[in-house]
Write a structure and sequence with these properties.
The complex is a heterodimer.
Chain A lengths: L2 H16 L6 E3 L5 E3 L4 E6 L11 E4 L2 E2 H4 L3 E5 L9 E7 L5 E8 L4 E9 L9 E7 L4 H12 L1 E2 L2 E2 L10 E6 L10 H10 L27 H8 L3 E9 L3 H4 L11 H11 L3 E5 L20 H7 L4 E2 L2 H9 L6 E4 L8 H7 L13 H12 L6 E7 L1 H6 L4 H22 L5 E6 L3 E2 L1 E8 L11 E2 L25 E7 L5 E3 L12 E3 L6 E3 L10 E3 L13 E2 L3 E6 L9 E3 H11 L5
Parallel strand pairs in A: 2-9, 10-18, 10-19, 13-30, 14-15, 14-18, 15-17, 16-17
Antiparallel strand pairs in A: 1-3, 3-7, 4-5, 4-8, 6-7, 8-9, 11-12, 13-29, 19-29, 20-28, 21-22, 21-23, 24-27, 25-26
Helix pairs in contact in A: 3-13, 4-14, 9-11, 11-13
Chain B lengths: L1 H20 L2 E3 L5 E5 L2 E4 L1 H6 L3 E8 L9 E5 L19 E6 L12 E13 L6 E13 L1
The chains are: A alpha/beta, B alpha+beta.
The structure holds zinc ion.
């Protein structure tokens, strides 16, 4: 026998005897912060199959979990048919604040995690909470929005954005359990549950379970508000209402792509106001516009549950104006709604097919009108979701116009909150993009290539966008002297140095043979187009990506004083829960 | 004389056969009538061509799996971004193409002409779970 092999085998045997090679995995994870009284599932995954459960012991602060009567325990001896056992305790909750240690032993190995259970004051400081999420909104989006909508002259802005007036501000950490880079499911989940999770997951910790909906769940903001208060809940977006950010209010699945399931879970919670795109997954499969795989008709279900259904801005406003309406379902597009640059100015993308989509400002106005009929208050999430969807394909103009729209929508909420001093408003991204403003592009500048027409430092001067209209938008985006805005991460693509007037930029397409993302030849012949070789992985980098850079959160109103310094994204949930006293 | 008549008849027959086999052109803008978000219908043209051989110009979306005898035909080259759009969020106006023989995929930015038998109505592919409303069966394609 080979000596080295023998030696290795001996070391392995020793290692197994001396220290655990694989210990239990426990959810919620170590260092989780849990709102007192909120529901969560405990899951202990044992590394092997437990034949004799005598040695198995799971304790919470020293007490056998099975003796506490907390939650509904199930012991799964062979999970998903594999030779591994798990203990799942559904719907646990801890009402007394403090430090909890969950210890799990299989008789050989012991593993423990510690949780911080926090309470909230007995009395709420806010009756209403409005959480605005600018999906992917980074510093440059906001700066460009201010330059275009407020104008900057001799170094000073003529006026400020609405969000610029918010007194509280914090930087946010957005990383997830699995990765320093988050996606919109995982990050929105942190806002709506106070727990960190994993890429693409909503309302669950991602365990080894094979089925997307079988992972250990944590209760969402909408569920807690519905269970513990008599407030109304609203979800508003300009993306699909079953897309990650709005879905995080009500969903429990490992995969944000489970649109059919997400629509069903949303219906089970029944937010009072639901406004957005994504009607395709509400229609039964027999309808030509449907994307569902089953026969459920959620339009009919919501109607039967007393929701007026609107599909145009006019219908939405009429329903909102009816003082008898305390619920409203508005679906204005089969998939994502169009961005404001397309809707109001370019008439590109799908605006001609769906000419009556509301603006986010109108959606927010309608939502507040309906929700504020509840004397007990409301919780409303509003997403300006296309900032991200335009930033991925490097289409900064569309992303910035939607940032201006977000600010306009915040103005609607601020006008409502006014001096009421009972409404907490927060505005934040869920993650950032690698976007920067580096100067201007001037068609009049002499230069052989388009890049030579970029002015930096003193040569940048100021762009010549027309003065903004009454809604704060410059009505022309393809001006001769434009902002030079670049993303710092990208696939191979043609940089055209000008806005894409006909449709959203589509920088790269997948090469069918190599499977690598390559520059879309559609833009090759745009005058002055320059090939930029990407700096992202060729096989997966189809568009620009999210970045780990801190996001900036802004707060206004009672309870916003905790928004300061640096906060984990999970703290945003805690701020809302505290303001509403949900952990009483 | 008799031979010529036969020749002409054969030619006419050939022409007729050719005319019958010539697939009807169908454009992406001719698939649906969207009268409202909840009122989407197939066009009369689509319903009339159900079961007929048609030809459609479009782009091959990146294949769902490497070895595939079907693909998604789209109006524009598709951008696929798993973290900004869920796999579920394909646009309405796509056609699923089932090839009669496995073929090498082409550059998604290259326009292609696909010919196949149009199949209209909801169908879930039992192998992939992919939901579609319009399909081309027994299809073949060429680059343009
Ligand atoms: Zn994104």
């Amino acid at each position: 026998m080979n000596f080295r092999l023998l030696c290795g085998a001996a070391a392995l045997a020793l290692g197994m005897a001396a220290a655990p090679v694989a210990a239990q995995t426990i959810y919620p994870i170590d260092r989780a912060s849990i709102l007192a009284g909120s529901k969560f599932d405990l899951k202990v995954e044992f590394p092997a199959m437990i034949i004799n459960a005598v040695g198995m012991r799971v304790t919470l602060n020293g007490q056998d979990i099975l003796q506490t009567g907390n939650g509904n325990p199930t012991f799964i001896q062979a999970e998903d048919g594999k030779l591994v056992s798990s203990l799942v305790v559904r719907d646990m909750s801890l009402s007394t604040p403090g430090t909890y240690t969950l210890q799990a032993s299989d008789g050989t190995n012991t593993k423990s995690v510690t949780w911080d259970v926090y309470a909230t004051p007995a009395n709420p400081v806010a009756k209403n909470v409005i959480l605005f999420i600018g999906d992917g909104m980074s510093v440059a989006h906001v700066t460009a929005a201010r330059i275009l909508s407020r104008q900057v002259v001799e170094g000073k802005y003529k006026s400020k954005l609405t969000i610029d007036s918010f007194p509280q501000m914090a930087t946010i950490g957005t990383s997830g359990v699995d990765s320093v880079i988050t996606d919109s499911a995982n990050s929105a989940h942190a806002y709506t549950t106070g727990h960190k999770s994993t890429t693409n997951a909503l309302g669950v910790y991602v365990s080894r379970a094979a089925v997307n909906t079988a992972h250990p769940r944590v209760e969402t903001l909408a569920e807690i508000v519905k269970r513990k208060t008599s407030k109304s809940v609203g979800v508003v977006t300009n993306t699909e209402i079953e897309d990650a950010t709005p879905a995080s209010m009500t969903s429990h699945t490992r995969s944000r792509s489970d649109y059919d399931i997400i629509v069903e879970q949303q219906y089970n919670v029944r937010p009072d106001v639901i406004l957005g795109g994504g009607a395709a997954n509400f229609l039964p499969k027999s309808a030509p516009g449907s994307r569902r795989a089953d026969d459920q008709d959620f339009i009919a279900k919501y109607r039967a549950a007393g929701y007026p259904v609107a599909t145009t801005v006019g219908e939405m406003q009429a329903a909102a104006a009816n003082a008898g309406n305390t619920k409203l379902l508005g679906l204005f597009h089969l998939s994502n709604m169009d961005g404001v640059l397309d809707r109001k100015f370019l008439k590109a993308n799908t605006v001609k097919t769906y000419p009556q989509q509301p603006d986010l400002t109108e959606q927010v106005k309608a939502a507040i009108d309906v929700l504020s009929r509840n004397p007990n208050g409301f919780v409303l999430m509003v997403e300006s979701g296309l900032i991200d969807k335009f930033s991925h394909p490097l289409d900064w103009e569309r992303a910035v116009y939607d940032t201006i729209m977000l600010d306009n929508a915040v103005k609607v909420a601020v006008d409502y909150a006014g001096n009421r001093n009972d409404t907490l408003i927060m505005v934040m991204p869920d993650h950032t993009h690698g976007i920067n403003i580096v100067g201007t592009v001037d068609d009049a500048r002499t230069g052989e290539q388009m890049r030579d027409k970029i002015g930096v430092y003193q040569d940048a001067g100021y762009p010549n966008y027309p003065a903004p209209n009454a809604e704060n938008y410059p009505e022309k985006v393809d001006v001769t002297k434009r902002l030079a805005v670049f993303f710092n991460n990208f696939p191979d693509h043609y940089e055209t140095f000008r806005p894409k007037l006909d449709a959203t930029f589509n920088p790269a397409v997948q090469d069918p043979v190599s499977k690598f993302y390559v520059a879309n030849q559609k833009y090759k012949d745009v005058p002055g187009a320059m090939l930029r070789t990407g700096n992202l992985p060729r096989a997966t980098g189809s568009t620009g990506v999210h970045t780990a850079d801190d996001g900036i959160a802004r707060g206004f109103g009672p309870g916003s004083d905790q928004l300061k310094g640096f906060v984990e994204n999970t703290e945003i949930f805690r701020i809302m829960a505290t303001a509403l006293a949900l952990g009483r | 004389m008799g031979a010529r008549v036969a020749q002409v008849a054969a030619l006419l027959l050939a022409l007729t056969v050719t005319a019958q086999a010539l697939p009807a052109p169908l454009g992406f803008s001719e698939l649906y009538v969207v009268q409202g978000v909840l009122d989407v219908r197939f066009t009369d043209k689509v319903r009339k061509l159900d079961g007929e051989t048609v030809r459609v110009k479009g782009f091959m979306a990146p294949p769902l799996k490497a070895e595939s005898d079907f693909f998604v035909l789209s109006k524009e080259p598709m951008m696929v971004c798993p973290f900004c759009s869920s796999a579920a969020s394909w646009p309405l106006d796509i056609i699923v193409v089932h090839l009669d023989a496995r073929a090498e995929p082409v550059d998604p930015a290259t326009p292609i002409m696909v010919e196949g038998r149009l199949e209209v109505g909801h169908w879930v592919d039992p192998k992939t779970g992919f939901v579609s409303q319009l399909r081309l069966r027994g299809a073949k394609f060429r680059e343009l």
